[in-house]
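Obj: model holo form, ligand = magnesium ion.
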Amino acid sequence: MTESSAPERSLVLVKPDGFARRLTGEVLRRIEAKGYALVALRILTPTREMLAAHYAEHEGKPFFEPLLEFMSSGPVTAVVIEGEGGIPGFRAMAGATNPTDAAPGSIRGDLGRDWGTKVQQNIVHGSDSPESAAREIAIWFPEL
Ligand code: DAT
Ligand code: MG
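Output (holo structure tokens):
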């Protein structure tokens, strides 16, 4: 028997644009169809404090303030997903950051577009590394 790596967890957000467009179900459908498990889920309008922590790496960039304003503009669905390779796997499902560049077949490529806003509105967030996932899950699901 070959050893398998531990299942990893990733923090996924359906951002305010995706939530408002009723795309939460479509994103969850894709995650489940891919084979990842849903571990935890909540709907909330995030505070600026949560978002400043979540997006700390982007502080000082020109899109930081628009990003916090956009992300706190309405409800989001926060989800912890689990499965081997779930972190890069969901990043691949999400597609490129800029929805204009995101490949068809990806969430951002199929469902997103440029709306002419200061910050890209691209439907979903997904953790980019195990370290980011652990840090982000603690922000959105302190009980986990
Ligand atoms: P990702 O969400 O793909 O991990 P990121 O962490 O670099 O991308 O940026 C966080 C979010 O900020 C991203 O989802 C959309 C927005 N953003 C990133 N770069 C941007 C830019 N150059 N102009 C406008 N918005 C940007
Ligand atoms: Mg990122």
